[in-house]
Amino acid sequence: MSSIFSNEIDIVKAPTSKINTVDFENITFGNVFTDHMLLCDYKEGTWQKPIIKPYEPFMIDPSAKVFHYGQAIFEGMKAYKDENEDVWMFRPDENFNRFNHSATRLAMPEVPEEIFIGGLKTILDLERDWVKKGKGNTLYIRPFMIAIGSGVIAQPSTQYRFMIILSPARSYYSGEVKVIIAEHYSRAANGGIGAAKAAGNYSAQFYPTKLANEKGFQQIIWTDDATHTKLEEAGTMNVFFRINDTLYTAPTGERILDGVTRKSLIDIAKRDGINVEIRSVLVAELIEAAKNGSLKEIFGAGTAAVVNPIVGFSYQDNYYELPKIDDSFALQLKEKLTNIQYKLAEDTFGWTEKV
Ligand SMILES: *Cc1c(COP(=O)(O)O)cnc(C)c1O
User: What pLDDT is recorded for position 140?
Assistant: First the structure.
């Protein structure tokens, strides 16, 4: 496949690789990047020819719209290597479609499939040595788009840059995660940009998350902005609650990002006979379930950590600890999903795509 696309992409190879300077065993998430990056500019109403070239900084005008008005979107995906040294992507069309939904919401141009998917396959093919074998090793993929047109007038840019950068990553271990349920701040509002993977959604979370960190909590469980009674997302992840043996997660929509991990876990859970209910869980229900012992698990779901079990939560200054259980749905589902991603289990859903 990649050969079809690479005819349409200029490739300038790095003279030397820095791969031998990287300590893959002790890598911290998101700090090391591979030898190359993909770059494609949009101007005068059309996408230009993409180029893959050595990873390096670049210059843009200080008045570029991205700096002033935050026209910036991104995706987060991963590539995996199986025991036969083949490299695999996981549901890349989902990320491609979501990227273009984000673009539309921020008045940015959609990126054509040949550039997003074709570019991804070409750069992954070139960087395949950076994808290490063995469960837990991945290559994190960060496609993004920024407005590079100059001028501080507050209107959408006419020039954009789409890029893909790649960062080798070990499985993400976040330690014990305790969360605070949001009573004042919100991640998203109806009519806003919460359903887009927009940079601004992240900057808006940093301050409330910092306040939570100062109180000894790692993350916030976001509630609906209007009433703060419905549980919506955990930090930058979708959130699942297990009450007795039923798994609950809120429906996606304007305030809740449509996560690929979330929908994959739902499908696996349903396939394997776990009762899943897609509905908002109320804060009051959660407190009640915590008090009567029916609350078994809370976990976040997203590409970076896959599944992030939560050990306890705070609401109105009361702390509720979750029980330690042996048959964790979070860990079972994580195992099943990662087995599909690493080609250790049969991909009955057809989610994996070879590079
Ligand atoms: C990216 C993201 C997720 C998780 O999406 P995945 O496709 O599973 O990685 C969940 N919530 C928010 C707010 C996000 O930005």
Answer: 97
Ligand 1 pocket check for 261: Cβ under 6 Å? yes
The string of pLDDT tens digits covering residues 307-355 is 999 999 999 999 999 999 999 999 999 999 999 999 999 999 999 999 9
User: What distances in angstroms separate CA 338 from CA 137, 139, 155, 192, one per listed residue?
Assistant: 11, 14, 43, 33
Residue 9, CA distances (Å) to 92, 116, 145, 232, 344 in order: 19, 11, 18, 41, 33
Ligand 1 atom with minimal separation from the 187 CA: 13
- DSSP letters for 121-186: HHHHHHTGGGS-BSTT-EEEEEEEEEE-----SSS--S-EEEEEEEEEEPPP---SEEEEE-SS--
pTM, full prediction: 0.95
Atom of ligand 1 nearest to the CA of 260: 7
From the CA of 304, give the closest atom in ligand 1. 9
The reply to whether ligand 1 has any atom less than 6 angstroms from the CB of 233 is: yes
Pick the closest to residue 106 from 160, 50, 187 (CA basis): 160
Cβ–ligand 1 contact at 303 (below 6 Å): yes
Ligand 1 mean position, distance from CA 257 (Å): 6
Q: Cβ–Cβ contacts within 10 Å for residue 19, how many?
A: 14
Helix (H/G/I), strand (E/B), else coil: 189: coil
